[in-house]
Design brief:
Blueprint (H helix, E strand, L loop, with lengths): L1 H5 L1 H12 L3 H19 L5 E6 L6 E10 L15 E3 H7 L9 E6 L5 H29 L5 E9 L5 E5 L2 E5 L15 E12 L3 E7 L3 H11 L1 H4 L3 E9 L3 E8 L6 H6 L4 H9 L4 E6 L4 H8 L7 E5 L8 E7 L3 H5 L4 H10 L2 E7 L7 H18 L1
Parallel strand pairs: 2-3, 7-9, 11-12, 14-15
Antiparallel strand pairs: 1-2, 2-4, 5-6, 5-8, 6-7, 8-9, 10-11, 13-14
Helix pairs in contact: 2-3, 3-5, 6-9
Amino acid sequence: METIMEKILDIIDAIAHEKGLSPDLVQAALKTAFVQTAKNVIDRTFAFEAEIDPETKVMAVYQTITVVEDDDERLEDEEIAAGFIALSRAIEEVDPDVEVEDQFQIPHALEDHGRTAAARLHREIEFHIQRLVEDELYNKYKNKIGTVVTGRVTRVDSEQATFIEMDEVRAILPMKSRIKGEVFKVGDVVRAVVRRVHIDKANGIQIELSRTSPKFLEELLRLEVPEISDGIVLIEHAARIPGERAKIALLSTHPQVDPVGATVGVKGVRINAVSAELLGENIDCIEYTTVPELFIARVMSPAIISAVSVEGAPEDENKKAIVTLPADQKSKAIGKSGINIRLASMLTGYTIELVELEGESGESVTGMEEKKDDLSSLEALFN
């Protein structure tokens, strides 16, 4: 016990260095540990403070006593038991000039309480340093939410949740956040995006990863495409059906940079690298525009759209788009198992209704061509 008390500054420096913590934070944690130990081995009703003596550099524990009126209801039978002393007694025993609300301190030596105090102090120090480490890790990884991290698989449990070791912490990749068809085994190196971070009192810091989030796609593109990481190309929106197909809306901040071409790369090398990480997920790159009709027409690719009309303002939750298209384009617009129209709706935020354009319904072939020309003119206007 005396060694801990006397070498407290050396202990603070050693812990701070070993754990990568601020010495000031470690000092505050140790003071809390000393106070909690004093409360447990002396009296929980006392108000304690722990301070490092500037001369001896030894940690000392003091009980704080507050002076109150003689008839104050906080006084107990022994008057001093709960950290309060009557004014008349304080004048007689402490200082004749003392006043109500003045405070003074009584030193307490934890070493006088033997092995019980020593064992308790060790446990308290360990507990508070661990909490400090977890708080630091929590703040570190909370700032990493939405970014890509890499780790090695250490375990896969019976529910197919994958546990991944990342530097000083272990994270979990739940089965629901794993791309369909993926199988991991111990030793595999896995990349994922940090989805959620929280502290559980029983289990400490908990980090949840995801490989199915649209944010994972965005961050992979940011790593692969310099124009995106440099802010020349912006990712406006992204939508995914993990492992199958994705659509991503891109906007260039430079008039001479084609956002789609930059993202796809020469012979598709950039987009193919991202697709390979996502188990072959097919990624459609679309140039973003604030004109909803034009944006929806682009997003419906590979279908060739004749006309688009929208109902509701862009900020409305239940906004709707009526997409008119030739009958032979409907299957392309819907896509296999409805995947194309679902992604288009997810990306644009519009509920999309398809209307077939048929010659016998009164719409002439000339009318169809006029609508296509209208869309082509609109494309030209905003390109």
